[in-house]
Design brief:
Elements lengths: L1 H18 L19 E13 L18 E12 L4 E17 L2 E16 L1 H6 L7 E14 L4 E15 L4 E12 L20 E14 L10 H34 L5 H9 L3 E4 L13 H14 L3 E8 L5 H21 L7 E9 L10 E6 L2
Parallel strand pairs: 10-11
Antiparallel strand pairs: 1-2, 1-8, 2-3, 3-4, 4-5, 5-6, 6-7, 7-8, 9-12, 10-12
Length: 380
């Protein structure tokens, strides 16, 4: 029983240390990957200590490093993660064991064990999925079958332990594993007596420590689930921008119809009134890039007039007051004005002829989303 307590103590230390990692938490939903994603293989060397059922009551030393009970071993495994916190692996380990009766008698026992393990990545479960986390703590439970090749015996077994992986890159990790295999009593080939035996002392037990490498295969990591609400908000912002453009176009058409109905002889004055009317360029929510390049058609006409007449241009940026804090909206409106000014420069307008200003968040237009814009106007 002392050996079991030692294993549990190691597990507790590993879990506590991992919980104290000072790293950013990334808790978000992930999408299910294909069957061929997130596979891995492992290989490592082990130090194995055998505690046979025959030694109970013999007063043997409990150290796992005693020569009569310890031998090196090897292990290979292949597995797959189905979620960031849950996986399966198939593990083969052996191959040099011990038959331990007492300190004066122990023999070699060549064996192999094939187990299926359920893996629980508690680091991802409790701290949130983080593909760059250096240390992951992964308890496991499972069972399988073992065979003593020396004595030609087969035995069922249960297994438990804790796997620690230390990230080297997206493909490679160093792993340190502590585990316990509990076999039926005939695994080591020695006879069994039921006299005064309880629990694990009625069975053959293998404690092991393993150091090895993990190699991730194929696609690794998990894709973040799309934020449906954000996508809907973006689509709505684009619809609002189109509605704003349509309303502006309707207003401009109405104004032009009114001008035609009351046309004055001075055509040049009419043209000037048309050119000096503010032109709106719209933006999506929280964006500084122009929502539609079609908005620049009227801006080009205005830029042409300014170049031909040496006129100055005023560009004023706005944000809607319904979203964002005032200082953020101020910066956003200034950046939107600068974006349009850069477009005017690309059209051949001298930068010295352009004045920019930001008005921050406003609610001059209805609906409120129409205020995500910049206006361009010939200076009086």
């Amino acid at each position: 029983m002392k050996k079991l307590l030692i294993v549990l103590a190691f597990a507790g230390i590993s879990f506590t240390a991992a919980a104290q990692e000072n790293e950013p938490v990334q808790k978000y939903s992930v999408s299910t990957n294909s069957f061929w994603s997130n596979w891995f293989i492992q290989a490592g060397g082990e130090w194995q200590a055998w505690y046979s059922n025959q030694e109970h009551g013999n007063g043997l030393a409990r150290s796992p490093f005693k020569k009569f009970r310890s031998n090196p071993g090897v292990a290979v495994a292949v597995g797959k993660w189905f979620t960031p916190g849950l996986g399966l692996r198939t593990k083969l380990q052996g191959f040099w064991g011990k038959t331990v009766v007492d300190e004066k008698y122990s023999g070699d026992n060549k064996f192999w064990t094939l187990d299926e393990h359920i893996l629980f990545n508690v680091s991802n479960m409790l701290l949130g999925y983080n593909p760059k986390r250096v240390w992951n703590v992964i308890p496991f439970l499972g069972g399988g079958i073992g065979r003593s090749m020396t004595y030609n015996f087969y035995a069922m077994n249960l297994s438990a332990g804790i796997l620690n992986t230390f990230r080297v890159s997206d493909r490679v990790a160093v792993n340190l594993e502590l585990g316990w295999n509990r076999y039926e009593e005939d695994m080591d080939g020695a006879s069994f007596s039921k006299t005064n035996r309880r629990g694990w002392e009625m069975k053959d037990n293998l404690l092991y420590a393993e150091v090895g490498l993990t190699l991730n295969l194929g696609k690794t990591g998990w894709n973040k689930t799309p934020d449906v609400d954000a996508i809907k908000a973006l689509s709505q912002a684009q619809i609002d921008a189109l509605n704003a453009q349509l309303n502006d176009a309707n207003a401009e058409n109405a104004r032009l119809r009114d001008m035609l109905a009351n046309q004055k002889p001075a055509e040049t004055k009419t043209v000037k009134e048309f050119i000096t009317t503010p032109v709106s360029v719209f933006f999506n929510l929280n964006k500084t890039n122009i929502a539609s390049k079609k908005d620049l058609v009227n801006v080009q006409a205005l830029a042409k007039y300014a170049k031909e007449n040496g006129s100055s241009i005023n560009v004023t940026g706005y944000a809607d007051s319904a979203t964002g804090k005032s200082d953020y909206n101020q910066r956003l409106s200034e950046k939107r004005a600068e974006t349009v000014a850069n477009e005017l420069v690309n059209m051949g307008v001298n930068r010295d002829k352009i004045t920019t200003a930001g008005k921050g968040g406003v609610n001059e237009l209805s609906p409120i989303s129409f205020n995500r814009r910049a206006t361009v106007q010939i200076a009086e």
